[in-house]
Amino acid sequence: MITQLSRRARILWITVPSVLILLCLGGMFYLNHEPPAFNPIARATEHARAHGHQVVTGYTTTATLIETVDVLLHKRGGYMSNDILPPWVLLDNVPNWEFGVLTQVRDLARAMRNDFSRSQTQSTEDPDLAEADPLFHYDNARWIPPDTEGRYRKAMDALERYVTRLSSRSEPQGQFYARADNLADWLAIVEKRLGSLSQRLSASVGQVRLNTDLSGDPDARQSTQSPDVVEVKTPWTEIDDVFYETRGAAWSLALFLHAMEVDFEEVLRKKNAVVSFRQIIRELESTQEPLHSPMVLNGSQFGLFANHSLMMANYIARANAAIIDLRRLLQEG
After folding, report:
1. Of 84, 91, 132, 254, whose Cβ has the fewest other Cβ atoms within 10 Å?
2. How far apart are CA 38 and CA 61, in angstroms?
3. DSSP assignment of 169-204, as one string?
4. Which long-range contacts (CB under 8 A, 24 or more apart) does 74-78 make?
């Protein structure tokens, strides 16, 4: 009798952990999913119809920002960056993707607060955007109340109030100014973000670079001296993190640009920049091709195995170069 009970105990001791491990692996496979892109113009139209709004200048961009945050919070598996239980805590690709999206959301929300909603530097900032902006900068990995998701939902509510006033003729203080200088200022932020991502991706194989920190200004100074030759390399353990962060940033940025093509249509047409704008979107959308590999490979530059980071860096660098040209066109054209 004792022997039979011991045998059953051993079977349970082996079976239960095995089943839990299999369930955890299955959950990881199911949750490791990047949501597909949506149509910003169609979603903005649906949003306006559902709330009885009129689609005006700035509505498509604001509605796309709201929808992007909604996808971030309610995609398959929900928001994962602050999860502490398996299988969510064992995933890192999607949380890095989320951080890339969140960075673009934060930048656009701040640009809307500081630039798009203000007619000049001395004008008063919009109260709803002033509320939403700091909420999006809340710690993205916090799970102790007040939780991250709750803060981001409050920011969405503030954006909903803003877009309601934006489309209301009875509340003219809610505005979105689609001007060339506003667009150029936001693109300057995007340019820096993409430049950083491109450098981190390119450093996957390690590079020796000349120090150009003070180039172009003979009177420039820096806090401490740096060597003339700098070796830059992203650790192999972080390459997939940078890769998925870039995919998230490019995913959201392509959506925002699609929306702004509608809101800034007049500006882009007068600057003869519509084609340039669409080319940036095309380069960013190229980064969303499915990864036909179980992991992000980090082969050498011309070696036998692929280097997915260098391929991603190529698309990001081309998009960034096009943004630099577009900014110049908006400022001088």
Report:
1. 84
2. 13
3. TT-TT------HHHHHHHHHHHHHHHHHHHHHHHGG
4. 75/33, 75/35, 76/30, 76/31, 76/33, 76/35, 77/30, 77/31, 77/33, 78/149
Give pLDDT tens digits for 269-280.
999 999 999 999
SS3 assignment, position 307: strand
Instruction: Give rounded-to-5 percent helix, strand, coil for the chain.
Output: 65, 5, 35
Q: What b-and-e string marks burial along 114-153, b requiring 16 or more CB atoms within 10 Å of the CB?
A: bbbbbeeeeeeebebbebbbebbebebeeeeeeebbebbe
Write the CB contacts of 301 (distance below 8 Å, at least 6 apart in sequence).
Answer: 205, 307, 310
Name the maximum alpha-carbon separation found in the chain.
Answer: 91
Q: Which of 43-47, 110-114, 229-233 has the lowest mean pLDDT?
A: 229-233
What's the rounded Cα separation, in Å, for the pair 282 and 316?
11
∠ Cα 323 329 330 (to 5°): 90
As given in the structure block, the two tokens for residue 78 are 């929900």
Q: What is the pTM of this model?
A: 0.88
Sign of CA dihedral 63, 109, 190, 104: negative
Q: Which two tokens stand for residue 52?
A: 């009885």
Q: How far is CA 117 from CA 3, 96, 249, 264, 277, in A?
A: 77, 30, 23, 14, 22
Using DSSP's 3-state secondary structure scheme, residue 159 falls into helix
DSSP letters along 67-133, please?
A: HHHHHHHHSTT---TT--STTGGG--HHHHHHHHHHHHHHHHHHHIIIIIT-SSTTSPPPHHHHHHH
Distance of alpha carbon 333 from alpha carbon 324, whole angstroms? 13
Contact predicate 313/201, CB 8 Å: yes
